[in-house]
Design goal:
Chain B: It is a multi-pass membrane protein. The complex is a heterodimer of chains A (173) and B (553). Chain A has 173 residues and is of the alpha/beta class. Chain A has helices spanning 2-28, 74-90, 106-116, 129-133, 161-170; strands spanning 45-47, 53-55, 63-69, 95-101, 122-124, 141-145, 151-156. In chain A, the strands form two sheets. Chain A has a five-stranded mixed β-sheet with strand order 5-4-3-6-7. Chain A has a two-stranded antiparallel ribbon with strand order 1-2. In chain A, α2 (74-90) packs across α5. In chain B, 29% of the residues lie in helices and 33% in strands. The longest helix of chain B is centred in the first third of the chain and has 31 residues, at 123-153. Chain B folds into six domains: 1-35, no CATH class; 44-151, no CATH class; 164-203 and 490-543, TATA-Binding Protein (2-Layer Sandwich); 212-233 and 472-487, no CATH class; 237-344 and 460-467, no CATH class; 347-454, no CATH class. With 553 residues, chain B is an alpha+beta fold. The radius of gyration of chain B is 40 Å and the shape is elongated. The chains are: A alpha/beta (173), B alpha+beta (553).
Chain lengths: 173, 553
C-alpha cells in the first residue's frame, strides 16, 4: 500500500511535470512554427535582379547562406560587405549566398547592390511569401542551410565578419 | 502502515482526527469544545507521510498555504506587469532598453532589467502559473479522496461525544420517544432529507453533492489551463496581422501559403448630420459632426492557391468568396477568421511632378512616380528626361546627416532627381521631399514641381485560428457548474439519537447555519424536542463577557 502510494504520486507528478516541461520548452526553446533548427528549409523560388531564377531545392549538395534584409536596416547594411567578402572566398567551396530583400522597390535594391558592389544573387520577395514561409519578424535574419537542405542555424541580429566566416565554414559541403 | 482502531470497531487510517464511522474523537484535544469538521476529520494524506523526495514534493504542493502564496505572488507580479506598457505595445522601431529608460527614468530601466517588459511570457511567470496548476491538482486529490471516503463510511450511530461537540446540539426528554422519532423521520423525508436508520437512531442528510463543488470547479480550471497550454502546440493557434492596401493581393500569413486575400476597398464612415437618422442628431451635436465612427469595412476577395505551394512562385489562385469584413463580422473560412482591427487612411501611392523652368513656370511634362515601384528614368521627350537617383519612401536624416529611409512604407517619400534638359545636358540635381526642395549643387534653372498625390487606404486585419477555444469553453462551463454546485447547495446533516433515556439532536452544515437553524425550527415544531443551541455563538458571547448561556451579567 505504501509502495502503491509512492507509485501513484510519482506517476501523477511525472505527468504534471511533463505537461509543464512541454509548455515551457515549446514556448522558449523552439520556434512556434515548423521553422526550426534541424527541419528542412521550406523550398521557394525567387528571381534575382539579373533575371536568374533561384529555387532553393536546386542547391542540394551545396551549403546555402540565406539572408533576409532591407535597405533601411542599419545592421543589415553593416554585415553586407562581410558577407560579400566571405562569399568571394567560399563560393569556390560550394557555399551559395542568397539575399532576400523584404519587398522594396527594385530601384532601391539595385542602388544598394551597386553601392556595396554585391556579387551574390539578390532577390526581392515582392509578395512576402518567402518571408511568411520563414516567419521573419526581425531583420536581419540569416538561415544556414546545409547540403541536405536542413536548417543548421538561425541567426537574428547583426554578425561580425568572423561570425560570417565561421558560419560559411560550417555549411561547407 | 499504522492504523487506528476505534472502540466501535472501525479501522481508520493514520492521522484521522475522529472516527470515520462513529465520530469518536481519536486524538483527544480537549482545549476546544467543538469538533473541527473540516474534511470530516479525515486524514489528509499529505500530512501523514513524509519519507521520500516524492512525498516531500507532493506535500509541498498539497499545502493550501503554499497554494495561496503562489496565487498572491502571481497576482502581485501581474499587477506590476501593468505599471508600464509591455514590450509588444511600445513602438516597434525603438530599442526596448532605451525606450523604457527614456520614458520612465530609472524605474523604467529597473523594470526592463528585471524583465517585467515581457512579463506574461517570461519563464518564471509561466512557472508560477504552472505551479498553481500543480498545486490545484495535488491539493484537490489530497482532499477529495479522504473526504469521499469519510462521507461514504460515516455511520448512523455516532459516539455521544461527537453529537455533543457539534455546533448545533440539544438534549431533550420526551414522553414518547418512538412517536417523536417517527414524526421526525416523516418531516425530514418531506424536506427531502435522505434518512438512514440504525438501532433506532437517525442520520438525515441532504445536499452532499455540494461538497464536490470545489473539486468540480478545480477540474474546470485544470481543463482551462490545459487549453491554454495547447496554444503552444503548432497549428492549434494562429494569431497574425495582415496589413493590406487597396488593390493589393497578399498571402494570408499563418495559412502556410494556402490562402490569398485581395483588398478591393476599405471604407471608413462617420455619423453625419443630415445624412443619418434624426435620432442621432443630439448625440452628433454633443461630440461634433463627423467625429463618430460608423463603419470600418474592408471589401475583400478570398482566394485559394491551387497546385503545389512554392513560396515566391507566381500563385495560381481560385476565387473562394467575396466578403465585406466589418468590426465583429469577420470573414470565416476553414477555421480561419479575418477580423477588422485597424486601418490607415490615405497612404501615398503615386506622386506626380511637373518639370518646370523656375523663371517662366513653363512645364515640360509630368512625371508620375509609383511609390512602390519607381522607375529609374522618365523620358519626357524633346530632350527632356528625369532620372531618379535615389528614393527614400520613409525619409529622415540619419545620425550622419544623410537622407535615409525608416522603412519601406511610403509615409514620407523623398527623391533625388536629376533633370536633363537640352540646355543643361549634364543635368541638374534636386532633392525633393514633401514641402521641401534642396539644390545641393547650387541654384538650378529647373525644378520638379509637385503636381498631385494619389493615395490608397490600408486595412489592418487580424488572422485567427483557435482550436483551443472549445476546450477553454468546456473548462469554463465545468468551472461554473462547480461554483454553482458549491454555492447554492448546502450539505446538511441531522443526527437524532437515544442516549441514556434522552433524545439527543445535533446538526451540521458546511455553510448557511442560519438556513439550517430555520429549517430545524420547522422540523421540531410540536415534537417536544428542544431547539438545538448554537454552541459556537454561545462561546463567542461567553468570550465577550456573557455566561455560558449567552446572558450578559
Amino acid at each position: 500500500m505504501k509502495k502503491q502510494r509512492l507509485v501513484v504520486r510519482t506517476v501523477i507528478l511525472l505527468l504534471l511535470l511533463s505537461a509543464v516541461g512541454y509548455t515551457i520548452y515549446s514556448n522558449f526553446f523552439t520556434e512556434k512554427t515548423s521553422i526550426k533548427v534541424g527541419a528542412t528549409a521550406p523550398d521557394f523560388v525567387l528571381t534575382d535582379l539579373n533575371g536568374k531564377s533561384h529555387r532553393l531545392s536546386d542547391y542540394r549538395g551545396k551549403g546555402v547562406f540565406l539572408n533576409f534584409w532591407g535597405t533601411w536596416c542599419k545592421p543589415c547594411e553593416r554585415e553586407m560587405p562581410y558577407i560579400n567578402r566571405q562569399y568571394e572566398a567560399y563560393k569556390q567551396q560550394g557555399v551559395e549566398v542568397l539575399a532576400v530583400n523584404v519587398g522594396e522597390p527594385k530601384l532601391s535594391v539595385q542602388k544598394f547592390i551597386d553601392q556595396f558592389g554585391l556579387t551574390f544573387p539578390v532577390a526581392i520577395d515582392r509578395e512576402d511569401q518567402v518571408m511568411n514561409a520563414y516567419d521573419i519578424d526581425q531583420l536581419p535574419a540569416t538561415f544556414l542551410i546545409d547540403k541536405n537542405g536542413k536548417i543548421k542555424k538561425i541567426i537574428t541580429g547583426t554578425m561580425t565578419e568572423e561570425m560570417v566566416q565561421q558560419y560559411m565554414e560550417s555549411i561547407k559541403p | 502502515m499504522e492504523q487506528v482502531k476505534c472502540e466501535c470497531g472501525h479501522v481508520n487510517p493514520h492521522g484521522t482526527v475522529f472516527c470515520e464511522s462513529c465520530g469518536k474523537p481519536l486524538e483527544e484535544d480537549t482545549s476546544k469544545k467543538l469538533l473541527d469538521m473540516r474534511y470530516e476529520g479525515s486524514a489528509r494524506r499529505s500530512q501523514t507521510y513524509n519519507k521520500t523526495i516524492i512525498d516531500k514534493i507532493w506535500n509541498f504542493f498539497s499545502s493550501v498555504k503554499v497554494g495561496v502564496w503562489l496565487i498572491v505572488i502571481t497576482l502581485v507580479a501581474s499587477a506590476i506587469g501593468t505599471i508600464f506598457p509591455q514590450e509588444m505595445y511600445i513602438p516597434p522601431n525603438v530599442s526596448p532598453a532605451e525606450y523604457y529608460k527614456d520614458q520612465y527614468g530609472w524605474a523604467g530601466k529597473l523594470y526592463y532589467e528585471l524583465g517585467f517588459n515581457n512579463l506574461y511570457g517570461s519563464w518564471w511567470y509561466m512557472l508560477l502559473i504552472a505551479s498553481i496548476g500543480v498545486s490545484l491538482v495535488i491539493c484537490s486529490l489530497d482532499r477529495v479522496i479522504p473526504l469521499y471516503r469519510a462521507l461514504q463510511k460515516q455511520g448512523v450511530t455516532r459516539h455521544p461525544t461527537f453529537l455533543q461537540r457539534q455546533r448545533l446540539f440539544s438534549a431533550s426528554q420526551v414522553a414518547d420517544e418512538n412517536r417523536v422519532f417517527s414524526q421526525m423521520k416523516e418531516r425530514l423525508i418531506k424536506r427531502r432529507y435522505h434518512v438512514r436508520e440504525e438501532n433506532g437512531n437517525i442520520l438525515a442528510e441532504k445536499g452532499r453533492f455540494s461538497r464536490w463543488g470545489p473539486y468540480v470547479n478545480h477540474i474546470g480550471l485544470i481543463i482551462f489551463l490545459i487549453g491554454a497550454m495547447l496554444r503552444f502546440v503548432p497549428g492549434m493557434y494562429v494569431d497574425k496581422v495582415l496589413w493590406i492596401r487597396e488593390g493589393e493581393t497578399k498571402e494570408i500569413p499563418g495559412t502556410g501559403g494556402k490562402y490569398f486575400l485581395k483588398n478591393e476597398k476599405f471604407i471608413f464612415e462617420v455619423y453625419e448630420k443630415g445624412k443619418d437618422n434624426e435620432v442621432f442628431n443630439a448625440a452628433i451635436d454633443r461630440v461634433g459632426n463627423g467625429t463618430v465612427a460608423k463603419t470600418y469595412q474592408t471589401n475583400v476577395v478570398l482566394y485559394k492557391r491551387v497546385g503545389p505551394i512554392v513560396p515566391g512562385e507566381e500563385p495560381k489562385l481560385k476565387k473562394v468568396k467575396e466578403y465585406n469584413i466589418r468590426v465583429n463580422e469577420p470573414l470565416k473560412y476553414d477555421h480561419y477568421a479575418l477580423y477588422q482591427v485597424d486601418f490607415k487612411m490615405n497612404e501615398p501611392n503615386k506622386m506626380a511632378f511637373n518639370l518646370i523652368d523656375k523663371a517662366t513656370n513653363q512645364s515640360f511634362g509630368t512625371v508620375t512616380v509609383d511609390l512602390h515601384n519607381p522607375q529609374s528614368s522618365y523620358n519626357l521627350g524633346n530632350g527632356y528626361r528625369v532620372e531618379l537617383l535615389s528614393y527614400f519612401p520613409d525619409f529622415y536624416f540619419d545620425d550622419d546627416g544623410n537622407p535615409a529611409t525608416k522603412s519601406k512604407i511610403p509615409n514620407n517619400p523623398a527623391f533625388v532627381f536629376k533633370m536633363i534638359t537640352p540646355d543643361k545636358p549634364k543635368g541638374e540635381v534636386s532633392f525633393v521631399a514633401i514641402r521641401q526642395t534642396i539644390e545641393p549643387f547650387g541654384n538650378n534653372k529647373y525644378k520638379m514641381a509637385f503636381a498631385g498625390l494619389d493615395t490608397r487606404n490600408v486595412s489592418g486585419l487580424t488572422v485567427r485560428r483557435d482550436f483551443t477555444l472549445w476546450i477553454l469553453g468546456i473548462g469554463g462551463v465545468i468551472f461554473m457548474i462547480g461554483l454553482i454546485q458549491g454555492m447554492y447547495w448546502n450539505h446538511r446533516r441531522i443526527w437524532l439519537q437515544r442516549v441514556n433515556g434522552e433524545v439527543w439532536l445535533a446538526a451540521h452544515t458546511n455553510k448557511n447555519w442560519f438556513g439550517l437553524k430555520n429549517e430545524m425550527k420547522h422540523i421540531i415544531e410540536g415534537t417536544g424536542l428542544a431547539m438545538p443551541i448554537d454552541q459556537a455563538e454561545v462561546e463567542k458571547k461567553a468570550a465577550q463577557g456573557g455566561d455560558r448561556n449567552g446572558a450578559t451579567k
